[in-house]
């Protein structure tokens, strides 16, 4: 009584060993379950937040020409630390302008303000003379598009990613957008072409391929105002060349040299991407310190732009 035979002891030890993996699995899955439960609570809290109310008397933005004006705009993320100070400039409809300058001077902030992700602390931002504070967000987003440095792709097919936000769409239009974005060649080489499934963020694709899908999305959306925010800064030389061709197609719908289809705002660090802009604005410490064409700014050998250009050529 109370003693085990050798065979019973071996059976007991074997059973104990066999229990170790299931116990570890239960513990690991329980921890993951609790983490997922916490994440669901946070997502649910976010989804339950009331939408930011539209301003009183907000009106839908009608079909626009694409004229953009910043009028004495000031903005700060933190009090007493201004990013933009009394900044003013105007972009004509159909014009391509570039915003350049060192990191942290407020170039991307200008794009965020134009998209109404933030409100200026002072001043006005106008499109075709209409103050953006008094237009509905949906009507604004229908006519403005952005291609940023960080590409956002979603779980779904390439086709769904390109036509994102459109329930009913023509597959031929998606194919056309891919061609304009210089993406059709690599898409055709994928197992199911446009119907190839992409995981979250399209991790199976290269950076250049993901960027060209993002450009195809902008082509499909066909915005009147287009913002290109450091769209090639994270790419290697070969990918940058392919994406740059796609961006030129997007900016002008393949209509060069008569390119007046849309207003384009280029935010760039690499000055080679802004050489053909109609005007270049140099931003420093929240102000525009210089403006002109590439040739005009280079001709003034003492300009800030000429100095930046010379540094990048070294």
Jot down its keywords.
alpha/beta, Rossmann fold, 6-stranded mixed beta sheet, 4-stranded antiparallel beta sheet, 10 helices
**Strand order within the widest beta sheet:** 6-9-10-3-11-12
- What would the principal axes of the Cα set say about the shape? elongated
Provide the residue-averaged pLDDT: 82
At the first level of CATH, the class of the largest domain is Alpha Beta
Task: Give an overview in words.
The chain is of the alpha/beta class and 314 residues long. The protein has 2 domains: 8-49; 94-105 and 136-313, 3-Layer(aba) Sandwich (Rossmann fold), CATH 3.40.50. The protein is 39% helix and 21% strand. It has 10 helices and 12 strands. The strands form 3 sheets. Strands 6-9-10-3-11-12 form a 6-stranded mixed sheet, with helices on both faces. A 4-stranded antiparallel sheet has the order 2-1-4-5, with helices on one face. A two-stranded antiparallel sheet has the order 7-8. A hairpin with a 2-residue loop joins strand 11 (279-284) and strand 12. Helix 5 (171-180) crosses helix 7 (207-221) and helix 7 packs parallel to helix 8 (237-252). The relative contact order is 0.13.
